[in-house]
Design goal:
The complex is a heterodimer of chains A (414) and B (188).
Chain A lengths: L4 H18 L4 E2 L11 E2 L3 H5 L12 E2 L12 E5 L17 E7 L10 E6 L5 E4 H6 L3 E8 L12 H5 L2 E10 H8 L7 E6 L6 E5 H6 L2 E6 L2 E2 L9 E3 L12 E7 L6 H5 L5 H8 L4 E6 L10 E10 L5 E7 L7 E2 L1 E3 L8 E9 L4 E9 L8 H7 L19 E4 L5 E3 L3
Chain B lengths: L1 H22 L9 H7 L14 E2 L1 H10 L2 H5 L29 H4 L3 H11 L10 H14 L9 E2 L33
Antiparallel strand pairs in B: 1-2
The chains are: A alpha+beta (414), B mainly alpha (188).
Amino acid sequence: MALKRSDRRRFLKSSAVLAGGLAAGAARTVSAQTSDAIVYIKGTDEIVAYGKRSRFETAVRESHGRPHSPDTFGLIKHVSTPIQESVGVITPSALHYIGTTRGHYIPDIYPEAHKLMIHGMVDHPLTFSLQDLKRFPSVTRLHFIECAANRPSVEAKSIQESHGMTSCAEWTGVLLSTLLKEAGVKGGASWVIAEGNEEVKGTSSIPMEKAMEDCLVCYGMNGEAVRPEQGYPVRLLVPGFEGIFNVKWLRRIEAVDKYYMTYNDYGHLRQSETDAALGYLVGPKSVITYPCSNMTLPDKGHYEISGLAWSGNGAITRVEVSTDGGRRWQDAEFRGTPQRMAHTRFAIPWRWDGSESMLMSRCTDELGKVQPSRAQVAKFFGVPLDPSYRVPGRDNSIQTWRVASDGSVHNAYS
Amino acid sequence: MRIPRLVSIIVLLLWGGIAIAQTSYGIGSTPTEEEMLTMDIDISPTGEGLPEGRGNAKEGAQLYMTKGCIVCHGVTLKEGPAPRLLKMDKGPDADPWEFGKILPIRSPYAPTVWDYINRAMPLGAEGTLTANEVYSLVAFLLYKNEVIEEDEIMNAQSLPKVKMPNRENWAPLPDYKPGMDRLEGYPY
């Protein structure tokens, strides 16, 4: 978040006081400390063992929607990532969003006792320990996971609320197809059901085509073990599919001959076929993360507009940016190589002349699908566009930020 | 004679290659029947996996109190603090989707209700209900939501036959194919 200079001073001053007061043992404080003075922290065994971010970094996840997470029972349901603070394409594991159909506790699983069973319509049912899984050929891929609740809205008070239910991590594991082939899938098995080990044993039905295509049974996340909130010790990744398919604390995969309509499946059941079809995968989607609402541009002049683009259909092939509400579009550059079903960072230089500006991004994916405006979606379905119009299925519509002449940035949902 | 032998060697080699591909890595162990039975808790929408047992709404009403459901879901099944278990009052002509996202009324299949209560409730003591208890509790919730009568017996045969109001009233997912259009002809 862009802080004005004076705010920044005040912040540094108060944190220095805090450091002097609270961390006297660990920090060498300088008498008559000025706001620019650096406090030197003595090494501790803790710092040596496992690092922490700077105490000046304050970006945190927050509860998303209702009920509040945690709720009165201590269940966690929806938690969003501070996407406004993101740099690059990887969401730090500690900030990765969390979502489930129903709230859940976080199972504290002893990894050596954890087993993954593959059974049902297979030739040889098999059980794998974590060590077993690590003996298979491994795969490391960047993938986003996004919750169906991630949608721009007129009420959204922040980008974290409208776009914070997506995250991207580097996932390591074994292809589900490798495990299914090891067990030998029988003819007629058209779905798998994947079950987690949380208290509600959350279960999702996944088409066999997808299971054999690119699903990953992951034990690694961003270079270390998967985090407990993300499914420690083993989770499933179903690239591009709605978040709920990505079963955490994975304990069982069963090959079956029909859609099972589990509780998770029931949770995203839709009445209209359009909603059901468009709810499965997310289409091409992007958002500008800098600048975005609740920020203030301190001055006229040069900025780098930057954001994230992703698609359930594969890789992003193009991102365009407009600063005048969509009249003119300019191609943005990729920062890094776009990966399939992964956040892709884009950027474009911009000179702000101090006048009101409308910032938008739109992306295209490898299938040639283009991120639409809400108006385009409404037009496609032949319905009137009003503020209550809801894009069917996964909402991949364009987000506009309005930069006012005083530099403040606002949600310009229309 | 030479050629056939060569052929047979090639066949053997190929066979060996295929054999490796088929038995592949040889990693993992075979679960015992018992392990499979305890782990395999899912019930299909058409009732496969439902165990022996029976129950009705009267028994369920008792269990709703004695098993503590009442503490979290409320005396009237409406007031919480846990999610409401009774359909919204929308009148007789309402589309069943208007009753709210409430499992024992929205679910197209009654066995899904059984499956969920069996695996997930009561919160804090999941997996402790007997099959009879789950049948009774499902019967109670279906009765309260005006899906079945109070004295109807729920068991592995009758439960899958319960006509849930949304049985035909939901959209199946499209057949997934890699690289498919999310929606036929949709440019976005």
